[in-house]
Automatic annotation (TrEMBL):
Name used for this protein in its record: Flagellar hook protein FlgE
Organism, as annotated: Brevundimonas naejangsanensis
Keywords associated with the record: Cell projection, Cilium, Flagellum
Lineage, top ranks: Bacteria, Pseudomonadati, Pseudomonadota, Alphaproteobacteria, Caulobacterales
Domain of life: Bacteria
Amino acid sequence: MIPPLSTAAAGMQAASARLESSARRVASGEMENYAIEAVEQIRAKSDFSANAAVARTADDMAGTLLDILV
């Protein structure tokens, strides 16, 4: 079983790295189409948000389980 918090953290790190790479390409002028980079940045932000929601949900579930057990 893969722990959901670890998975979410890895997903947030990957999304952050993708956003940073895209921002570097825009800043350096390495790409030909800014629209493609804008889409990539929106996707990275959405992926980060989705993984953050998974982390929050896993945390809430663990808290609820502890409340039940105590």
